[in-house]
Design goal:
Elements lengths: L7 H27 L11 H32 L4 H8 L3 H7 L9 E8 L2 E7 L5 E6 L5 E3 L9 H14 L2
Helix pairs in contact: 1-2, 3-4
Length: 169
């Protein structure tokens, strides 16, 4: 997907709408800072008025950043990749990963299979990075790591899976 381009007319309409939306916030900030009524905001020192407008844009900038992160996360939850997010934003895949680190969930990765004591265990990396396991003991009993418990490494998960397989040999 290419970066969207807008026409001059669309840009002018966007600028106008943003300024109209910003005016009440800038007036409220100016009123709090100066003690003047909101309707008298523009009667104040021009530098102070301009700084009030800048302060309002800072608030809007923070809100836009939060909304873009939400949009990136939503796109990622529907399967968009960091490459796609970057293309839309005009940055690299790595730039998108840095900007929105939690937007794209990596699928679970299988680390391998253990065959011990006549049973079999599968080690799986969770999307959050921890490791879990599922197993079938030689006696036919099914087992898995505790729900929500993820081990720090595949080796630690393998040790827990091995202990289960030993118990169900």
């Amino acid at each position: 997907m290419m970066m969207p381009e807008i026409t001059r007319e669309e840009q002018a309409a966007l600028d106008k709408a943003l300024c109209e939306a910003l005016d009440p916030l800038a007036a409220a900030i100016r009123a709090r800072q100066s003690g003047l009524a909101q309707e008298r905001m523009w009667d104040a020192d021009p530098a102070e008025v301009a700084l009030s407008v800048l302060a309002a844009w800072k608030v809007v900038d923070g809100a836009v950043k939060q909304l873009t992160a939400t949009a990136a996360g939503t796109a990622g939850s529907y399967g968009a990749s960091y490459e796609q997010l970057g293309a839309v934003w005009g940055i690299t895949r790595q730039g998108a990963r840095k900007k929105w680190p939690d937007a794209v969930q990596r699928p679970a990765q299988e680390a391998g299979t253990l065959e011990l004591f006549g049973g079999t265990a599968r080690l799986v990396q969770a999307p959050g990075g921890g490791w879990g396991w599922t197993a079938t003991g030689a006696d036919g009993v099914l087992g898995a790591g505790e729900d929500g418990v993820h081990h720090v490494s595949a080796e630690v998960a393998a040790a827990h899976a091995g202990a289960f397989l030993r118990e169900h040999a």
